[in-house]
Structures are given as C-alpha cells and as structure tokens.
Amino acid sequence: MKQFILMITLITGSILLTPNVFAASSEVKWTDYEKYRDIKSGYGSEKVYRENVFDQFEKHFIKLAATLPENQILKVEVTDLDLAGDTHLAGVSQMRVINERYPPSITFSYQLIDAKGKVVVSDEVVLRNRSFMSSSNLKYRNQALGHEKKMLDDWFKNTFKELVVSK
C-alpha cells in the first residue's frame, strides 16, 4: 500500500512539475533597436536596462503564447518601442517620469505558425495607448512595464480570441 501511495505521489508530482508541453511557444526578434523611440533607463547602464526590458517583453510574449494551441509558434519582430513616460534631467542624472503626455507604444509584425509550418495568421501592428493613465490597470500595477504589458494583453485578447485554449 505504501508503494502504491508513493507511486501515485511521484506521478502526480511529475505531472505538476512538467512544463506545459501543450502550449504554443514564442520567438521575439528586436530589429534596429538603436532606432527605437524610447528605451532609455534614465539611470544606470543603458545596455543592462535595454536587455532587461527585452527580457521582460520576451517573457510576456511567452506567457501570452502559452494560451494558444500546442505546437504553434508566435513569431514577433519588434521594429519600434516607446515606453510609457520619458526621461528627464534630475540633478546630475536622469529619471523616467510617467504621465499622460508620453503614452506607451510598440510597433511589430507577427506570424502565428502551425505545427506544419503554415502561417495561420500574420499582420503588422502599431499599438499606442493614449489613455493608459486613466484605465484601470490593477493587474500590473506594481510591475515594471505594466502599461506596456496591459496594452499587449488587450491586443492579444482581441487578435487571438478564437484561438485561445482554456487551461
């Protein structure tokens, strides 16, 4: 009996700890990022800040793609990025100030590729949220790039509403 319980526990644990193999994946390409409108940190190393911003966006696209059918790939090519707010001089350094005059925007193209390599859907997208300060953004209130993540969530929900798989 103890062996049976141990076996069930191990099987259940391995199922819970196994990554979700029944989800789509994503790939993000950052094209000519030197020409992006605004990915300035306002402080510290620009390179480290840019890499952190890219990493957070890539993780967010992975999270979104995980709700799509298995064996699909969401390929995204970002061509411009303007983070919410702007950097301003504050003494000897700069700081990012978030206000309604500087809405977040992102320009990218995407392709959703099925398991056979066929393009299911593709488009070029320009997102800008001019009312980002007045919307109720409770989901990402305490997260970096919360305004941008909310904007991407809204786009994804509207674009892929027919394809999202309930988990």
Describe this structure in words.
Helix 2 packs parallel to helix 3. The chain has one domain. Strand 1 (25-30), helix 2 and strand 2 form a beta-alpha-beta unit. It has helices at 2-17, 46-65, 146-159; strands spanning 25-30, 73-82, 86-90, 93-97, 105-113, 119-128. By secondary structure, it is of the alpha+beta class.
Secondary structure layout:
Layout: H1 2-17, E1 25-30, H2 46-65, E2 73-82, E3 86-90, E4 93-97, E5 105-113, E6 119-128, H3 146-159
Parallel strand pairs: 1-2
Antiparallel strand pairs: 2-5, 3-4, 5-6
Quick structural gist:
With 167 residues, this protein is of the alpha+beta class. The chain has 3 helices and 6 strands; from the N terminus they run αβαβββββα.
- Proportion in helices: 25-40%
Mean of all residue-level pLDDT scores? 82
**How many structural domains can be distinguished in the coordinates?**
1
| Biggest beta-sheet profile | 4 strands, mixed
End-to-end C-alpha gap: 33 Å
List keywords for this structure.
167 residues, 30% helix, alpha+beta, single chain, two-stranded antiparallel ribbon, four-stranded mixed sheet, 6 strands
